[in-house]
Amino acid sequence: MEHESKKVHLVLQSQGNRPQTNGGSHPGQTEPAKMDSSTVVARAVSSEEFIAKLRDEVEHGGHGASHVFVILGASGDLAKKKIYPTLWWLFKDGLLPAHTYFIGYARSNLTMEQIREKSLPYMKVQKNEEEKVEEFFKLNTYVSGKYDVKDDFIRLNEAIEKKGKSNRLFYMALPPSVFESVTLNVKNCCMAQGDKWTRIVVEKPFGKDLDSSNQLSNHLASLFKEEELYRIDHYLGKEMVQNLMVLRFGNRIYGPIWNRDNIASVVISFKEPFGTQGRGGYFDEFGILRDVMQNHLLQILTLVAMEKPPSTDAEDIRNEKVKVLKSIPPPSQENVVLGQYVGNPDGSGDEKEGYLDDPTVPKGSVTPTFATVALFVKNERWDGVPFILRCGKALNERKAEVRIQFKDVAGDIFREGEVKRNELVIRVQPSEAIYMKMMAKTPGMSIDCEESELDLTYGSRYRGVKMPDAYERLILDVFMGSQIHFVRSDELSEAWRIFTPLLHHIDQEKPKPIPYKYGSRGPAESDELLQRNDFQYTGSYKWRPGVAAKPNL
Ligand SMILES: NC(=O)C1=CN([C@@H]2O[C@H](COP(=O)(O)OP(=O)(O)OC[C@H]3O[C@@H](n4cnc5c(N)ncnc54)[C@H](OP(=O)(O)O)[C@@H]3O)[C@@H](O)[C@H]2O)C=CC1
Ligand SMILES: O=C1O[C@H](COP(=O)(O)O)[C@@H](O)[C@H](O)[C@H]1O
C-alpha cells in the first residue's frame, strides 16, 4: 500500500523565526532547511515534492544523533491507546528521524511483549505490514521502575545511553500526582548531554485551578526551560483547528468582516454521544469545564479571536493568543448553564444509565457533565460579541464545531423574515467541513430568496486524503522542535484565571446541575442562553448535498 500519509507535509523554518529564503526557485518561496531537529521548527503545509525531500533528509541526513522517545507511564491507557499507535504510524510512514528508539517506563513488572499485546488492538496494523511492525517493536524496550526512586531513573538513563549520544523526548503519560517527582528525577538523572536536547511533553490536566496550575508551572520552570516544555492540548493538532489560521489570514475576504461590526455571536461546541462509562472516578474530580472547556474550547476561541500575528512563528502566535485571553474576564453567573445527564428510560443500552448510576461516580455528585458559558473579549475588535462555549457528554451526537453567526443585513429589501443570517461553520469533527450559510436566489423565474451554502466538504474536495491524527502531528512537532501547537505557560495561567472563580464556586457552593436526558441536546436552558446572547436559531436551513432545487416557475 502506497503511503497514505503522503499528504502529511512539513515546511521547516529556522528557529530564528522568519522563513528561510535560501534562494528558492520562486522569489519569497520557503526553501526547506535540513532536517536537523535541534535547529528547526516545522509547520504543516502541502507539497508532494516536499515529503520526498523530507524522506531524503530522514534517511540520509545522518546528523550523528539518535533520538530516544521515553514513554513514562507505558503501562497505562493513554500509552496503549494513543502513544504507541502514534509512534507506530509515524515510524511506518517514515516520518521519524533515522535511529529513533523507544523506551517504555512504568512501575508494573511488564515485558515488551505484554506492552505490544496491549497496544496492538489500537495500532491498525494492515495485513502487509507484519514485517514493518516487527521492525518497530525491535526498536522498543521497557524499563520497570518507581516514579519517586532516583536509582530507578539512573537505570532508565543507562538504558537511554545504550542508544548512543541522543536527543531525548520524555512523554509524561502519567497521572498528575506523580508529575513532580518524575520531572525532578528526569532532570537529575536523564538529561541529554552536550549539544543534544531534551524535550518534555506534558499531558493535561495542568492543575485544577489557577494556584495549582501555577504551582506546577513554577515547578517545571525550576527544572526546564520553556522551550523544553511541550504542553499538549490535542485539539491544537486537529486539522480544522490548525486551519483557522489559514482561513482567517490566508483569505482577503474575512479580515474586514471579522469583528463586532459584523459578527453577532460565536458558538464553539463539543458534543459526545457517550457518558463517562467507568471513567467516572477520574471525571468526577474534574468535570466538563476542566476536562474540555478550559483547554480545548478556550484554545479554539483564541485562534478565532486573536489578531494577525507578525509571522507564523510559535512565539508570535502564542503572544497573540495570550493577548486575547488577557482581555477575557471570568464569566458572570447569568452566563453559565451547568447540566448533568440522567438515564433515558426509553433509550437503549448505555442510554438508560445516568451519570450517577456509574458505580465509579461518588453518590450524589453534582459535577457537571454539560456546560454552556458565554465569554466576552473586551477589546476593540470584539467588545460586546458573545463567545459561547458549549460542551457535554452523553448528548445526541459527536460533534465539534465553530459557528460564527453574522449580524442581520441592514436595510433589508426582501420579504420580512425571508433573509436569514449568514453563518460560517467550521466543522472540526466528524467529517471535516467549512460551510458558509448564505442567501441565494431560488433557481427559476421568481426572485425568491432561499438559504443555501458555499460548501467545502473535505470528504469530496480532498477525496482519499488521510487526515493525520492529532497526536501524530503533535508528536512529530516535538521531534521537530515546533511549539506552535503547544500551550505556553502564560496561556495556561490566563486560561485558569478566566475559569477559576466559576470552578471555585462550583467546588464550594455545589450548585445543582440541570438534569438532561442521555442522548438529548442538553438542557433547554442552554438554548435560552444562546438566544439571550444573540445566536439566532431558526430551524429553517436544510442542507441538500448534490440535490438540484426544483425549478421555480
Ligand atoms: N459540508 C457539509 O458536510 C455540510 C453539512 N451540513 C449539514 O446540514 C445540517 C444542518 O446544518 P446546520 O449548520 O447544523 O444548521 P441548522 O441551522 O440546522 O443548525 C444550526 C445549529 O443550531 C443548533 N440547534 C438545533 N436546535 C436548536 C435550538 N432549538 N436552539 C438553538 N440551537 C439549536 C444545532 O445543533 P446543536 O445545538 O444540537 O449542536 C446547530 O448547532 C447539519 O447536519 C450539517 O452537518 C450543512 C452544510 C454543509
Ligand atoms: O481531552 C479530552 O478529549 C476527549 C475527546 O477528544 P476527541 O479527540 O475524541 O474529540 C474527551 O473524550 C475526554 O473526556 C477529554 O479528556
Automatic annotation (TrEMBL):
This is Glucose-6-phosphate 1-dehydrogenase. It is found in: Cytoplasm, Cytosol. Keywords: Carbohydrate metabolism, Cytoplasm, Glucose metabolism, NADP, Oxidoreductase. Pathway: Carbohydrate degradation; pentose phosphate pathway; D-ribulose 5-phosphate from D-glucose 6-phosphate (oxidative stage): step 1/3. It catalyses: D-glucose 6-phosphate + NADP(+) = 6-phospho-D-glucono-1,5-lactone + NADPH + H(+). NCBIfam families: zwf. Residues 1-37 are annotated as: Disordered.
